[in-house]
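User: What would this chain look like folded?
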Amino acid sequence: MIQLQYMAPWVPTFSAALESELSAKDYSPPFTTFLFATVDKNGYPHNRTLVYRGYLFENKSINVLT
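Assistant: Here's the prediction, encoded as structure tokens.
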């Protein structure tokens, strides 16, 4: 079975923001956090604070953050 992997549309924007955060000269965090937000079926927002540790197997095309 051939399985094709496509980079999700959010990956380039997320990667650019992450690189900008990590390249700041006056800011050296021990970890990088970001907010993840969704809207439920009733229209209520839900926000979560996540810690970025990398992509699964260091492969952006599988679209799985660790």
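The chain has a mean pLDDT of 79. If you want, I can go into more detail on any region.
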